[in-house]
Design brief:
The structure holds two protein chains of two kinds.
Chain A lengths: L13 E10 L2 E7 L3 H7 L6 E2 L6 E2 L12 E4 L7 E5 L10 E4 L13 H4 L8 H5 L7 H11 L13 E14 L3 H12 L4 E4 L18 E2 L2 E2 H12 L5 E4 L2 E7 L3 E7 L6 H4 L3 E15 L3 E3 L12 E3 H9 L9 E5 L3 H11 L4 E6 L7 H8 L3 E4 L1 E7 L6 E7 L6 E9 L2 E5 L2 E3 L2 H5 L3 E5 L4 E6 L4 E3 L9 H16 L11 E2 L24 E3 L4 E2 H9 L5 H8 L12 H12 L3 H4 L13 H5 L16 H6 L3 E5 L2 E6 L7 H14 L2 E4 L4 E6 L3 H8 L12 E7 L5 E11 L2 E6 L4 H15 L6 E4 L4 E7 L3 H8 L14 E7 L2 E7 L7 E7 L3 H12 L5 E2 L2 H10 L48 E8 L11 E2 L12 E9 L4 E9 L8 E5 L4 E7 L14
Parallel strand pairs in A: 1-7, 8-9, 8-15, 9-12, 15-28, 17-24, 18-19, 18-24, 19-20, 34-44
Antiparallel strand pairs in A: 1-2, 3-4, 5-6, 5-7, 10-11, 10-29, 13-14, 14-15, 16-25, 21-22, 22-23, 26-27, 30-31, 32-33, 34-40, 35-38, 35-39, 36-37, 37-38, 40-43, 41-42, 42-43, 45-48, 45-50, 46-47, 47-48, 49-50
Chain B lengths: L2 E4 L3 E4 L4 E5 L13 H9 L7 E7 L7 E7 L4 E7 L8
Antiparallel strand pairs in B: 1-2, 3-4, 4-5, 5-6
């Protein structure tokens, strides 16, 4: 039976609602409102995990998101498992299972603990130094290092939860709902600002709701009672939205913030299903008020990491808020007054406090006097020099500090205790401020970094701005709010406040021990096991920059980003190197402030919503015919249509043969279509294409090649002149958006004088391309009125027609080399058109073919595909397409670059055809080409860009780019593969119907 | 993420825009007259300033208009936006 350390009912814990949960397989009970940490402490469980490097036993140290030690795996071996979760943030629910990380076989007996015994051999940089040599052994080392790296286990099953994103625009965003945040949000909202208040906890009010009642008064009431009334009043303010359990992860420029809202993590499994688990809020705020508070610092002394050693305010929060005592024999160790408030809280609840060890010489604060009056012994000017107890603290040793604080004197005094509350002062939570680009300044008096220069419309208020007592906080808030929101008054301008005031300060970053530093373990970064000793070693080894020391010692590189110990690391470096903290600067605080799940980041964009798909009007038909699809840009295009269990090769061979022997049909709707109009349209085309356009007659089509300004082929396609000042340009499927963008760029910036208008009409039309010797007969059946004679409707021309009274545009153009027609119709009639073609073509065995057969057919003709046979380094001359480059035109995009010395080299890679000596071997696309096999090093001449087995030629064909290939016709080259060498002969890239007889067949 | 004041549409989120590199580099009117080096200067050479920089931006998912922006690259402060064809500010 576990011990029960509940002290007294707390209004935040529902003792009528018992909750059972498991930790490391054992069942415990807590109450609704408990965190995993408070419930474990109530069951007297302090040992929660093992540290990263030395596997030292570690317990719960804090009561918040800054927790470095108590990180656990929740719901291990389920599809909802999550590693590295802070026990201090997990709200317990019926059925929760949590387990310790980084230990084997279990947390009480961990084999890795041997690292602690051999720790003198594991200094900072141990891995860097040790596994350097011999280099060939790295693979062996790596296995073991990887095995021992990492803390929790990542989930291996599909995440069952739903995640979401939401955009929020507000006038004022207030981050943090402590007393500053609550007052700021209330006054902003009441002054007609649309306000959003966010807090990471489930209760508003921060630490004020359980603040000492005797010493902190507002309006003659205790501050805690007063703030609770304020919190109740917030509900009635209409333009104030409040988000609890919501943690701001990132603060970017222009007041753009990302926050994670937790919606179901605290609920039982049965309430989680089919609900959004976490939501990423994308907040754009006109003004931001940061009231993120401050984090209590630990103190850095020998063996300061044992389970039972906690932050003093955490001990207080567990007692006050959760009604749990963290120990039976409590001692506090402090350099400021806050430990006295914690001690008084325990005393008032009847919990034993044996002593307070204070490194200061004295203090006259009222709260210190109160402690003296109740008879708790205070050891002034003393420090803890050692602690004992392996799995739980049982004893500490203290000694008197020398005047300069560098050494200890006198004899050790041993004090038996099972909980040590440590209070090292406060670190303002400036993380979000610096993420936004804010610059800090160092306050020498209080040893804190404070916001200095604001990069956007924002302020920091309260303790994140270095104000630590109630009176100061509220007075400053009133002044700052009025200025920031430009309002004449707040509702707390003249309120009476009483609060504690600290009268004495002393700060020592690294407390001395009676042992030499080399024999001590003063932890600075608990999670990564970086000690003060490691930092000093790094400095001795010559590291000076704080960023370098951080990476060498891994201080601040854990999942907690060193929220507790970073300031001490800086202080120790400054003291050791003899520089001022302000000059040292800080390491960078990067988003997220607390870890985010991947689910939150991707939101709904998973599975079929991972990316946007575009589908053609004929898509349903393709699916019905069980087409295989391929992604082209964002389009889903039919790749091939297997029938009767055909392989891809078999299907493509059948489709390609049918297209040449009788009739084929291709869904060409995805080609980019740009409608070009205006009195300068012809001139515009002249400037963007390499060939001449002025003389193209109305009703005619022309193939065009578009270059980049650097002379390299950018896009190609057929453009049709629809009217005097009206063209329809087609582009490659993948290039459509970029081509339109590029054309707009030239029109708007270089040639604004041209009267030209561009409109994307890709989605407006569906296109069926019917090809093959029987295509004419099929078209005749569909459009009987249209005169299809070569005289009336020759190759490379266009006609307007009607199918069942629906207007369509028919182009007689061909990408296969066959007699062929492209029918464009309003997209909504696309499927009807397609089905009509199929029906009409039935008697000719019309065969739908996909992109793979299209590629094969055009390769037989040696037609290039931009992006497959070109890669942004090919000029038209390289492609042996000199015929399309106008010599007469004065200028076009890329023309000048064709005469650069580099583009005119004879030995550039040029497009050629390749035929394998063995006609049955199909070359691999991307394979390298050589001419000499016995060279060393062997010279690569180029590579294969397209390769197919041609069913119409009954042999393997390939296109390739080869250095100086133009002059290699008939030359033997070699393709060395892993298991064989393939010999090939350079050939004309036009393999089929060189005379283009079939176009008019 | 910036908020950009498109000169045609007003304030919009950065994700609607596309950056287009350095501004005020005019395409030579007579490219054929240029030496290889002069052409290369136009084609390839771009500044990358830490500080105030003149840039081209396109409201790609909005009005599709190109415009100019003066931005301090050290803190991302957008000092000014102005239309294509308008003269750059002297200061």
């Amino acid at each position: 039976m576990s011990a029960n350390l509940r002290v007294k009912s707390s209004e935040y814990i529902d003792e009528t609602h018992r909750v059972s949960f498991k930790f490391n397989g054992k069942t415990y009970y807590g109450f609704k409102g408990d965190t995993l940490a408070s419930a474990l402490l109530a069951n007297d469980v302090h040992l929660v995990g093992r540290s990263f490097k030395y596997h030292r036993p570690r317990g719960i140290m804090t009561a918040g998101s800054e927790e470095p030690n108590a990180i656990v795996q929740v719901n291990d071996k389920t599809n909802r498992t999550e590693p590295n979760v802070r026990a201090t943030e997990v709200e317990i629910y019926e059925g929760l299972e949590a387990s310790s990380q980084n230990c084997w076989p279990n947390v009480n007996f961990d084999i890795g603990g041997i690292n602690n015994l051999i720790s003198p051999f594991l200094p900072a940089g141990f891995y860097y130094k040790t596994f350097m040599w011999p280099a060939s052994f790295w693979e062996k080392y790596e296995f073991f290092i990887r095995h021992s790296a990492g803390l929790g286990k990542s989930p291996s099953e599909k995440d069952p939860d739903i995640y979401d994103h939401r955009n929020i625009h507000c006038d004022v965003l207030v981050v943090g709902a402590g007393i500053s945040g609550i007052l700021a949000a209330k006054n902003a909202a009441k002054n007609n600002f649309k306000t959003l208040l966010i807090d990471e906890k489930n209760e508003l009010g921060g630490a004020t709701i359980y603040q000492n009642k005797e010493f902190n008064k507002i309006d003659n009431q205790s501050s805690s009672d007063w703030i609770k009334k304020e919190i109740n009043g917030l509900k009635n303010i209409s333009n104030l939205e409040i988000k609890t359990r919501t943690s701001v992860a990132a603060y970017h420029g222009y007041n753009y913030l990302l926050a994670r809202e937790n919606l179901t993590d605290h609920l039982e499994k049965k309430y989680k299903n089919n609900k959004v688990r976490q939501r990423l809020l994308k907040i754009r705020a006109k003004k931001v008020i940061l009231a993120t508070g401050a984090l209590e610092r630990p103190l850095i002394f020998n063996n300061n990491d044992r389970p039972g050693i906690m932050l003093s305010t955490a001990v207080k929060k567990y007692a006050d808020f959760f009604g749990v005592k963290c120990g039976e024999k409590n001692v506090f160790f402090t350099n400021n007054d806050s430990a006295y408030e914690s001690a008084l809280c325990l005393y008032n609840k009847g919990i034993k406090v044996d002593a307070i060890i204070d490194i200061r010489n004295n203090s006259n604060s009222k709260i210190v006097k109160a402690i003296e009056q109740v008879g708790i012994q205070i050891y002034w000017s003393h420090t803890v020099v050692d602690t004992n107890g392996y799995r739980r603290l049982n004893n500490i040793s203290i000694m008197k500090l020398s005047n300069d604080g560098m050494t200890v004197t006198g004899d050790r005094i041993n004090i038996s205790c099972d909980c040590l509350g440590v209070a090292g002062g406060w670190t303002p939570a400036v993380h979000l401020f610096t993420q936004s680009g804010g610059k800090l300044k160092f306050d020498e008096d209080n040893n804190v970094f404070l916001p200095n220069k604001y990069p956007s419309d924002q302020i920091s208020v309260g303790s994140c701005n270095g104000k630590f007592n109630l009176k100061e906080i509220i007075n400053e808030l009133s002044i700052k709010l009025k200025e920031f929101l430009k309002i004449s008054q707040t509702d707390f301008d003249n309120i009476a406040i009483e609060s504690e005031e600290e009268t004495s300060k002393r700060n020592i970053w690294l407390l001395p021990s009676d042992k030499a530093i080399g024999k001590t373990k003063p932890f600075v970064d608990y999670q990564n096991d970086a000690t003060a000793k490691d930092i000093k070693l790094a400095l001795r080894e010559g590291f000076r920059s704080i960023e370098h020391v951080k990476r060498y010692t891994t201080t601040g590189m854990g999942t907690d980003q060193g929220k507790l110990g970073n300031m001490h690391a800086l202080g120790i470096i400054a003291d050791t190197a003899g520089v001022k903290m302000g000059e040292l600067g800080t390491t960078t605080f990067r988003p997220p402030y607390t870890p985010l799940t991947f689910g939150t980041i991707v939101g709904r964009n998973v599975g079929e919503f991972f990316d946007i798909f575009r589908r053609t009007a004929m898509n349903d038909w393709h699916i019905e015919k069980k087409a295989k699809f391929e992604n082209v840009g964002q389009w889903k295009r039919s790749w091939y249509y297997p029938i009767n269990g055909e392989t891809m090769h078999q299907a493509v061979q059948r489709e390609s043969k049918a297209a040449r022997e009788s009739a084929g049909i291709l869904d060409a709707s995805t080609l980019g279509k740009i409608d070009i109009q205006g009195s300068d349209a012809s001139e515009f085309l002249n400037r963007v294409y390499t060939n001449a356009w002025s003389k193209l007659a109305i009703g005619k089509c022309r193939y065009g090649l578009m270059l980049n300004e650097d002379g390299m082929v950018y896009d190609d396609g057929v453009t049709t002149r629809l009217g005097e000042n009206h063209y329809l340009m087609t582009t490659t499927t993948g290039g459509a958006a970029n081509v339109l963008g590029k054309l707009e760029d030239y029109l708007q910036t270089e040639w604004p004088e041209l009267d030209v208008y561009l409109t994307s009409v890709t989605d407006h039309y569906a296109t069926a391309s019917v090809c093959g010797p029987n295509s004419k007969k099929i078209l005749k059946k569909i459009i009987p009125d249209l005169d299809l004679s070569d005289e009336n409707f020759p190759h490379m021309s266009f006609k307007e027609a009607k199918i069942n009274n629906i207007k369509c545009r028919v182009m007689r153009i061909s990408f296969t080399g066959e007699h062929s027609y492209e029918i464009n119709i309003q997209a909504s009639f696309g499927k009807a058109l397609w089905e009509k073609c199929i029906e009409a073509g039935k008697e000719y065995n019309i065969t739908p073919y996909g992109t793979e057969s299209m590629h094969l057919l055009r390769a037989e003709k040696g037609f290039i595909i931009v992006g497959q046979d070109t890669d942004g380094t090919m000029t038209p001359v390289d492609l042996q397409m000199d015929w399309i480059v106008s010599k007469k035109k004065y200028d076009f995009i890329g023309k000048r670059s064709l005469y650069r010395s580099d583009t005119m080299r004879e030995d550039r890679k040029q497009l050629v055809g390749l035929l394998t000596d063995d006609p049955n071997i199909i070359l691999e696309e991307g394979a390298q080409i050589v001419s000499e096999l016995n060279q060393n090093p062997i010279q690569m001449l180029g590579h294969i860009t397209s390769s197919y087995f041609s069913p119409n030629l009954n042999k393997s064909i390939a296109l390739a780019v080869v250095k100086g290939g133009k002059d290699m016709m008939g030359k033997k080259l070699f393709i060395p593969m892993e298991d064989k060498i393939i010999s090939v002969t350079v050939a004309n890239p036009v393999f089929f119907d060189e005379e283009n007889k079939r176009l008019n067949a | 993420m910036f908020v950009i004041n498109c000169p045609y549409c007003g304030e919009r989120d950065q994700q609607e825009f596309k950056a287009g590199g350095e501004a005020h580099i005019e395409r030579p009117k007579q490219p054929t007259e240029l030496s290889d080096d002069e052409w290369a200067e136009y084609l390839f050479m771009r500044k990358n300033i830490k500080g105030v920089q003149f840039e081209r931006w396109n409201h790609a998912h909005g009005c599709r208009k190109w415009f100019n922006m003066v931005r301090d690259t050290s803190n991302d402060e957008i000092k000014l936006v102005y239309k294509m064809g308008e003269k750059p500010p002297l200061e």
